[in-house]
Amino acid sequence: MKNHFYLVFAFMMLINCKDQKEEKLPFSENKNSILDKTFLGITMKGNKYNVIDKCDGGYPSLKISKETLYFYYPQEGAYHTIKNIYTTKNGEFKIITDGYYYFKGDLPIPENKKWTFLKKNDLIWELSAPNDTRKILFSDSLNLINKKINYIKYPCDEDEQTEKKRIEKAYNYSGDGNWKVNCENGNANLSIEGKNAFLAVLFNQINIDMVEIKRYDFEKGIAYKLKSIPEDLGSLGSNLNWKEYLNNEPVAYIKIIDDNTINFYWYGFYNKKTKRREFKDNSFYQETLMKDIILKKCN
Fold it and tell me: Which of 23, 146, 160 is nearest to 92 (CA)?
C-alpha cells in the first residue's frame, strides 16, 4: 500500500512538471506581428503614458526584423542577431538571440539571450531579458502619431556642476597601459594612452595608430578607428588599401573587465569603397586558442 502511494505521488509530480513546461507555438507573421515596427519606451506621467525625450540620451526604442533585434536604452544601443522567435500559450513572444554588434557590417560578438516581449493591452508592450531586473514598457510609434500617447522633451540642464558630473561619469574608466595575451612571451601588443592607441596588427608587418571614437558606458567599452596611414610597413602591409581604410568606422573595440584585464575585439579594416571588412586577421589570434581575446596589463 505504501509503495502504491509513492507511485501515485510520483506520477502526479510528473504530470505537474509537464504542465509547467513552456509550450512553444509557431511564430506567425500576420497583421499583429511585431516585425518591422518601431516601439518607443514610455512612462506614466499624470494619467497618460508619455515618451520622455531626455537631454542626456533620449528614450528607449526597439525594432525587430527577421534577422535582428535593435534595442536602444539611453545612452547605448546594439543590434542583437536573432536565432529563433516563437510564441507561448499566454501570448508572449520569445526571441532567442546569439550575438550582438554595434555597427552595421561588424562581426557579431557571441552572446546568448532570451528576450520576452508581451502585449499587455492595445497600447502597452513589456520587454524583459535574463539577468536584467528591468521590465521596460513600450508602445507602437503609431500611437504617438495618433496621439494615444504624449511626447515630452526635457530641456538640457546648463548647470556647470551637473555637466561636470556627467563628464566624470562618462570617463571614469581607462584602458591606459600596455596589453598582451602573455606578458612574458607575447609579441602582439596593444598600447593605450588617453584617447590614442597603438596596435601591432601583424608582428613586424603592420603597426597602426588608432584613436578613440565612442564609449559604451554600460559595459565600459571603447571603440577605436584608424588614426592615420602607417608609415612603417612590411611587404604585406604596403599592398593594402590604406586610403580606403581611413574613415570613421571602428576597427577595434575593448571592454574593460578590471584594472588589469580587458577583452579585445578586432573587426578588421573597413573599406569605404567596397563597404566590406578586410584583413580580419590579427597577431593576438596566433597567441591564444580562446575565441574571446583576453589581454593582461603588462608593466
Answer: 23
**Which distant-in-sequence residues (6+ apart) come within 8 Å of 218 by Cβ?**
73, 76
> Which class for 123: exposed (0-12), middle (13-18), buried (19 or more C-beta within 10 A)?
middle
> β-strand 76-87 against 250-258: which pairing, if any?
unpaired
- C-alpha cell recorded at residue 50: 508619455
The answer, yes or no, to whether residue 170 has pLDDT greater than 70, is no
Q: Tell me the three cell numbers of residue 131.
A: 539577468
Is pLDDT of 198 > 80? yes
For 242, list phi and psi in degrees, rounded to 5. Answer: -60, -35
pTM: 0.48
β partners of residue 127: 117, 136
Q: Count Cβ atoms below 10 Å from residue 72 Cβ, excluding itself.
A: 16
Edge-to-edge strands, sheet with 150-153: 43-45, 48-53, 150-153
pLDDT-based confidence at residue 25 (cuts at 50, 70, 90)? low
Length reported for the chain: 299
- Three-state secondary structure of the chain: CHHHHHHHHHHHHHHHHHHHCCCCECCCCCCCCCECCEEEECEEECCEEEEEEECCCECCEEEECCCEEEEEECCEEEEEEEEEEEECCCCCEEEEEEEEECCCCCCCEEEEEEEEEEECCCCCEEEECCCCCCCEEEEECHHHHCCCCEEEECCCCCCHHHHHHHHHHHCCCCCCEEEECCCCCCCCCEEEECCEEEEEEECCCEEEEEEEEEEEHHHCEEEEEECCCCCCECCCHHHCCHHHHCCCCEEEEEEEEECCEEEEEECCEEECCCCEEECCCCHHHHCCCCCCEEEEEEC
Q: Cβ distance 247 to 270 under 8 Å? A: yes
Please state, in angstroms and rounded to a whole number, the distance separating the CA atoms of residues 103 and 80.
Answer: 11
| Mean pLDDT of all residues belonging to the chain | 83
